[in-house]
C-alpha cells in the first residue's frame, strides 16, 4: 500500500495567497474600490474570510500587497522575459545614451498607466493613501520610492559619465519629468501619451 504524504501547507497557503491577490485586483477593476470588500475577495478567491484576516487587517492592505506583487512580476518580465516567475531585479538600462534610456522607461511607464490591469488598483491605492497615512507611507516606501531610486541610480551614473551637470540633484531632476506625467494621470487632467511623457526630454 502506497504511503500517503501529508499535504504541503506551504504550497496550499501560497496557492490561496495568489488567489486572493488575483481576486482583489479583479474586483477593484470590475466594481471599484469602494464596493470591493473582504467578503467579496474571499468569495472570489474561494477561501474563508478568516484566511484573509489571518494575513491582512484590511482590504487596502490586501490590495497594496497584490499590486506590489503585480508590479514585481511586470518588472521581472521586462528585465528577463525568458525567466518569468524567477527572482529578477529590474534596472534602467545604461546604453551610454541617457536620453534614449529614459525614453525607453518612460514609454513603459505610459504603457503601464494606460493598462486597465494596473490603472484601477493604482488609482485606488493613490486615493486611499491620501486619507490613510499608514497605507500612504507603505505605498511610497514599498513601491514608489524603490522605483524612483532606479532613476536616481541611472542619473548618477550619467553624472559620472559627464552626461549630466555635476551640480544637479538627481532626486530633484527626476521629479521634473516624472511628476507632471503622474499628476496629469492622477487628476484626469488630459490624455497621457509617449509624446507628453517625453516632451521634457526633447532638445531645446
TrEMBL record:
Keyword DNA-binding: yes
Tree of life domain: Bacteria
GO molecular function per UniProt: DNA-binding transcription factor activity; transcription cis-regulatory region binding
DNA-binding region(s) from the entry: 37-56
Domain HTH tetR-type: 14-74
Annotated PANTHER family: HTH-TYPE TRANSCRIPTIONAL REGULATOR RUTR (PTHR30055), TETR-FAMILY TRANSCRIPTIONAL REGULATOR (PTHR30055:SF148)
Protein name per UniProt: TetR family transcriptional regulator
Family annotation (Gene3D superfamilies): Homeodomain-like, Tetracycline Repressor, domain 2
Keywords per UniProt: DNA-binding, Transcription, Transcription regulation
Amino acid at each position: 500500500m502506497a504511503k500517503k504524504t501529508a499535504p504541503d501547507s506551504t504550497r496550499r497557503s501560497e496557492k490561496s495567497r495568489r488567489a486572493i491577490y488575483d481576486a482583489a485586483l479583479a474586483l477593484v477593476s470590475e466594481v471599484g474600490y469602494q464596493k470591493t470588500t473582504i467578503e467579496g475577495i474571499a468569495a472570489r478567491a474561494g477561501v474563508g474570510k478568516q484566511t484573509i484576516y489571518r494575513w491582512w487587517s484590511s482590504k487596502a492592505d490586501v490590495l497594496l500587497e497584490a499590486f506590489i506583487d503585480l508590479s514585481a512580476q511586470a518588472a521581472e518580465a521586462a528585465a528577463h522575459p525568458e525567466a518569468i516567475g524567477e527572482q529578477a531585479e529590474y534596472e534602467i538600462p545604461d546604453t551610454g545614451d541617457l536620453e534614449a534610456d529614459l525614453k525607453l522607461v518612460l514609454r513603459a511607464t505610459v504603457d503601464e498607466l494606460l493598462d486597465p490591469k494596473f490603472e484601477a488598483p493604482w488609482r485606488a491605492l493613490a486615493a486611499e493613501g491620501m486619507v490613510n497615512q499608514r497605507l500612504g507611507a507603505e505605498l511610497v516606501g514599498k513601491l514608489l520610492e524603490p522605483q524612483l531610486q532606479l532613476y536616481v541610480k541611472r542619473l548618477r551614473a550619467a553624472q559620472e559619465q559627464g552626461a549630466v551637470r555635476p551640480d544637479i540633484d538627481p532626486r530633484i531632476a527626476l521629479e521634473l519629468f516624472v511628476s507632471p506625467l503622474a499628476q496629469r494621470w492622477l487628476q484626469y487632467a488630459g490624455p497621457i501619451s509617449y509624446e507628453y511623457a517625453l516632451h521634457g526630454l526633447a532638445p531645446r
